[in-house]
Predict the 3D structure of the following.
Amino acid sequence: MSGRLGAAFGRARAEGRAALVAFVEAGDPSLAVTGRLLPALQAAGADVIELGIPFSDPIADGPVIQRASQRALGAGATLAKVLDAAAAARGEGLSVPLVAFSYANPILAFGVAAFARRAAEAGIDGVLVTDLPPEEGEAAAATFVSSGLDPVFLLAPSSTPARIRRAARLSSGFVYLVSRPGVTGARNDLPEGLPDLVARVRAGIGRTPLAVGFGISSPEQVRAVSREADGVVVGSAIVRTMEEAVAAGRDPVPAAARLVSSLAAATRG
């Protein structure tokens, strides 16, 4: 692993902490807000930002991100426009690693090779295709790598040893471990047995960084997961904070940045 993602996880490891991976839905509530949001989250301490690509049928996501995806689509966000927004942010000096977090359909409609080239040109560092399992991801992963992108694959608590090994072989950015069955969404507590699950998956992936997500929403939860994993992913809590700010007539960018700042501090213990 090299490039911005490798540097981000390496820096966090050298500092004795986990990397904070912040998910946001691109285009929610508008691409103009996303353009302001990315540097604000970088300044707040996000080590990696996942850019959710809006999709009409986000089956792996809970209601918070489903609503955000619908708002983004309603505001005119498309895969091409999200990549344009990423390129604009890079042009203005954004240095934090960006991971495109998408369902397969928008990428297939764009064309996998064309998407990979355009994403790399826009300054995207990695790609996670939510509904592309490792068993079917060999060709896409090779295409991403050929364009200089780090593939990221998902694992679940039910993943077999063979799937764990395959995901590790295909992933060059990090492996994303879903902490619990079901869809995305903030939870009040962490699942029982998470340390054992992380240890089992880590034993199967070798040196590839392991990030844990789904249901992590508070500094206390981030602090606990940081003791087990190389990275902690928080998404729905950030998206919900922005949604609530907009509903209250406030700017969602400072609200999201305040939350991310508290989460980043928690990765340090």
Observations:
- The chain has a mean pLDDT of 94.
